[in-house]
Request: fold
Amino acid sequence: MMPAFAEQDRSSPESSSTATAAAGSKEDEMNNKHVLRQAQLARELQQLNDMLADKQQLAGQMMRSDEQLASVKLQYEVSIAACYSECRPSVL
Reply:
């Protein structure tokens, strides 16, 4: 009859290779999850960058529109002032 520790020694190499394979499989699974997560984050970052670029372009257009509106307003005010001065009789 063999001692109990001898049976453990015989099963140990098999169980250790199974454990190593399981650990490797878990590691591969974790690596795959990490790669997929990184890809998802990269897509999200690209979407955010695209949205930011669109907003910056819109802000630039709005600034140009504001500048043009200020110019038109100034011309209008000058025209109104000229009309008032022409339409009002001068009092001396």
